[in-house]
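Hi R.,

Here's the chain you asked about this morning:
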Amino acid sequence: MNEDRNAPVPGRFTSPIDDRFLEDYLPGGVHEFGEALVTEQEIVEFARRYDPQDFHTDPVKAAGSRFGGLIASGWLTCALMMRMFTEHYLTRNASLSSPGLDEVRWLAPVRPGDVLHLRVTVLEARRSSSKPDRGMLRSKIEVLNHRGEVVMTMLAMNLIACRSGR
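And here is the predicted structure, written out as tokens:
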């Protein structure tokens, strides 16, 4: 077998987050990280401000809802995801912007006491032909709870600077 022992391995970054460029995101790589404890107080405070529905804001009314108890707003789940995504995955030195997200799906309720983490798969890391100093990073993001259930998914697009402009 002719294996290059120095070749990058999908799923393992070879550069720290403070020195990561488009070339460091290898298609097929799967990265798991992060931990976010979801509290009742956080669910209620976020929902009162941004998503004031009874099953997010009132534990008594939520108990009588179809969810059988308080659940987090999907937007709180997105915010928690974004914190973990930026702390562990998205380059700090070469992130240029994001043109958007696709296919945001909330698959299961997030409840008080859940501990969330991320699994991110690199779908594509493609250098721009018109602006070779940057490229498009496409990632599939899955948010999982402590029971291993996928509670949210989305497809992210990020513009990332390249290590070399050629």
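One quick note: DSSP finds four helices and five strands in the chain.

Cheers,
M.
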